[in-house]
Design brief:
Blueprint lengths: L2 H11 L49 H4 L3 H16 L8 H6 L33 H24 L6 H10 L15 H4 L3 E5 L5 E5 L40 H25 L3 H5 L14 H13 L22 H19 L8 E2 L12 E2 L4 E6 L5 E3 L24 H16 L18 E26 L4 E2 L2 E23 L3 E7 L1 H7 L7 H11 E14 L7 E9 L19 E27 L4 E2 L2 E11 L1 E11 L3 E7 L1 H7 L7 H11 E14 L7 E10 L7 E2 L3 E9 L4
Parallel strand pairs: 7-13, 8-14, 9-15, 9-16, 10-17, 11-18
Antiparallel strand pairs: 1-2, 3-4, 5-6, 7-9, 7-11, 7-12, 7-17, 7-18, 7-19, 9-13, 10-13, 11-13, 12-13, 12-21, 13-15, 13-17, 13-18, 13-19, 19-20, 19-21
Helix pairs in contact: 3-5, 3-6, 5-6, 5-11, 8-10, 10-11, 13-15, 14-16
Amino acid sequence: MPVSLVKTLARWVGFLAASHGILSAQAVTVPRSQDVLVNSRQQTHFVVQGVLGSGATPSRREINDLVQDEVQFSLFIQALAAMQAEDQQSELSYFQVAGIHGLPFVQWSGSGPSSFASSDSWGGYCTHRNVLFPSWHRPYGVVFEQLLNQKAVDIANTYTVDQGKYQSAAENLRSPYWDWAQNIIPPPEVIELTEVTITMPNGSRQAVANPLFTYHFHPIDPGFADTPYTRWNSTLRYPTSDGPDAKTDVGRMKSQLASSQRNVRTSTYAMLTRAKTWADFSNTGLGGDRASTANSLEAIHDGIHNDCGGGTPDGRIGGHMSDPAIAAFDPIFWLHHTNVDRMLSLWSAVNPGLWVTEGSSALGTYSIEKNITVGATTDLSPFWDTTSSYWQSTMVESTEALGYTYPEFDGLNMGDTAAVRSSIAKQIKSLYGGGASFNSKRELTTRADGSLDWSARVQVDKFALGGKTFDVLIFLGDVPSDPAQWYSASSFVGRVTAFASSLQNTGSPELIEGFVDLNSFIAEHSGLSSFGSDEVKAYIDKNLALRVQTSGSQAVDVNEVPSLAVTVVSTPETNNVASPSSKRELSIRAGNEYLDWTVRVQVDKFALGGHTFNVLIFLGDVPSDAKEWRSAASFVGSVTAFATPLLNHGRPALIEGFVHLNNFIAEHSGLHSFDPEEVKPYLKENLAFRIQTAGSQPVDPDEVPSLDITVASTPVTDVVDSLPEYRDAQYQADLVLADTSR
C-alpha cells in the first residue's frame, strides 16, 4: 500500500465524526432504512443492483422537469437531505459515497487496494483519462440512485396525506439529470435557492434547506489535510474568497455557464455524430485509435466541472467542482454525471456494437495499477456485483438491467437495433443538431470537391499549472484585456479545458487534446463568402488568438504553459444534418458538401501543477481584461484541463479537446460559405486563444509549453433524416496557434 494511503488511513482510523444533521429552516426527520443503510462494520460488501421493479422501467427525469412535479420533487429533496445527514462514518452516507471518487482516499466497501506498489497512482477510485471513464461512472451513479430511492420509499411510507400517491412516486423516483447541452443554466432550485418549499409528510408546505445548493461537511474530514478545502465547511461554487466566510457567487457561475452554451451544445452534437470509435468517444487521453475532430465525452464533462466550480476571484483556489479530488461532494455533481451517463446511452444507440475497447489505465486508481492495459472485462471496483465479484463494463451496457432508462428511449423496442438507432438519431438532431448557417441572401458556394470544416486543435499538458484546472481560449479577433470579459467577448470562439488536480500531478506531462470548431464563428462574424482555403486562412492569420485562464477566471501567461500547441485544422466536410433556422440560413442541398472547422487543443493537464485551467478560443478581438474573456463577443468555446494537485507527480498527462467554429462563423463572420478560400483567411486574421485558471486568472502560454492548438477542417455531407457523414479531417499546418516547438 502506498505510504500516502497508509497515512491517510491512519488519520481516518483516528477520526471521530459528530453528526449534526442538516442545516435547515425546517428540520426533516426520516426513518433509517434497516435493509439498505447498514453500517460498514456490519457488512462485507455493498452489492450494487440498482432499483429493480416488476413494471415498466422508469426514466430518469431532466431536472427542469422534476422541479415542476410537486410530489416527486418533495420526495427527492427529502431523500437527498436524509442522505447528506447520515453519519459520515457510515459507509452508505452521502459523504462516503461521494468520497469514492477522490478524497479522503480511503477504502470503500472492502475494495482494494491491489498489491501493486506504485506510490504515485491516483488515490481515488474514479477512472479518468482512460477507456473506463464512461462505464465506471455508470455503476457509481447507480449506487447513488439505489440509496436515494430507498430513502424516498422510506419517507413516502410516513406520509399521512395521499400516501399511495407518494409511495408510487417514490418507487419510480430515479436520479435526475441536468441536460447542460440544451439548458446550460440549471433551474434556481439547483444553483440559487438556499431554501425550497416542499410538501411534507403531514401535507403541509414548508421551507427546508436546499440540499442541491450545497453539502455541509459535519465535520471536515482529517483526510482533507494539506488541501485548501479544510477552510470551507460547505461545498462552494465560485467562492467569493479563500476565507472561512466565503460564499457561492451565483452571478459569476451563471455568467460563465451562459458563455459556454454554444460551445457545449456544438461539442455535444459533434461528439454524438462524429466519434466513431470508443477511444474517440470515451476519454481525453491521446492513445489508441483516435481519428475524429470531436471532443470526447470526458472532455465535455471536464468543461462542465470547471464551469460549475469556478474559483476564488484571485484564482488561487478552485470551487469544489473544479477539482476532481473533491468534486463529488457538490450535489450538482450527481445531476451532471447522470447526464454524462445519458450521453453514453445516446451515443451507444447510434453506434450499435461499439463498446469498451482496450487502452492504458494511465494514472491508475486506488484499485487499478497505473499504465496497465484495461478493457471491457476489467473490474469496475469498488462496485460489487455479488458479495465476491465486481461489475465489469460488459455487464453495464443495458440501463434497463440496472433499473432505469431515459426519456428518449420511452416506447422503443430495444431489441430492434435499427429502429432504435433511427429514432435516437432523429432526437439527437432535434435536440442538439443543425449546421452553421449563412444569410440566405448570400448563398453558400459549394464546389464539387467539397467545402472545408475549420477547427483549432489544442494540445497541452493538463498539469501545466501544477494540477490547477485551466482553459485554453480561442479567439478570432481582438481579445479584451480583462480576463473576466474573455468569455463574453464577441471574438471568443471556444475553449479547451484541462481538468486537473494537484493530487493527480505526478510531475510528468499528461498531454490532452481538444478542438474548437471555427466554422460557426466564421460564418457569423467574419464577413467571408465561403469556407474556402485562401479566404479562411487569411482571416485566421489575421484574427486567431488564444488565452489561458484558470477555473477562477485568472489569466495565465501563455509562457507558463510551454506544452501548449494550437493548430488550425481544415477537413473536407459533408453535412447530413438538417439545419435549424438561425440568423443566417445556409443554402445547402442534400448531397452537397461543406467544411466543418474545428480547433483541436492538446495539452498536459498538469501543466499548472495539477490546477484546473481552461484554453479559450476566440474569433476576433480578445479583451485585455481576463475577466471579460468569456463574455466577449469573440469567445467561441474552451477546452478544460480538469486536474488536481493531489495527482500531480511531475509526469505529463496529455489530453485532447475540440472547439467547433462553424456556428460562430455563420453568425458573426460575414462570410458567404465555409470554403477554405474564405474561412482560412478569416481564421488567420481572427483566431486567438487564451489560457485561464478556474478562478478566471490569465495564464501566460509560456507556462503551458505542452499546449498544441491546431485548426482542422472536415468534409461533411448532409443526409436527410439521419446523422451527418464525416470524412477524414485535414489539419492546417499554416493555422497553428501554439505548438510544443516554440
